[in-house]
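Reviewer 2 asked us to include a model.

Predict the structure of this chain.
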Amino acid sequence: MTADPAADTTSSEVDSTVDVLAPVPGRALPLGEVPDPVFAEAMVGPGAAVDPVRAAGVAVAPLDGRVATLHPHAFVVVGAAGRGVLVHLGLDTVHLKGEGFDVLVAAGEEVRAGQPMIRWDPAAVEAGGRSPVCPVIALDSPPGRLAELRESGDVRAGEVLFRWT
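Predicted model (structure tokens):
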């Protein structure tokens, strides 16, 4: 057995489809509409975004896995097949230095899809002059591997935002 469960995969696990859930409720957007060129041009990777409802709430895990990276404004969950998903809560929110975010999990923790990860308030982010839009990125995904992207319409936290094949 390897030390990293995400690295211990079989070809059937790697070839399986992973449902990536919306981390927050709001309106689904294509990445191209994210008001940040790094995300809009998919420099970090492909995915979708959610323009969240302007009410305090929680961001939830987009899939089952291990919390590989954790900041108050962003996190990465790596699933069993080694697929990492980045959730970024708002844009330029790193400059808030954690203010207005309440982290509910720990780095390295195993989480379940839909589990609360971070408490935050998108309205407060917006009132501070920042966009609360949340990019959800399939890290290290080859082109064409995302299917059924929700890029419009309302989405609830925990609903499928896209499928990673």
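Helices lie at 11-15, 37-40, 122-127. The chain has one domain: 16-164. We have added this to the supplementary material.
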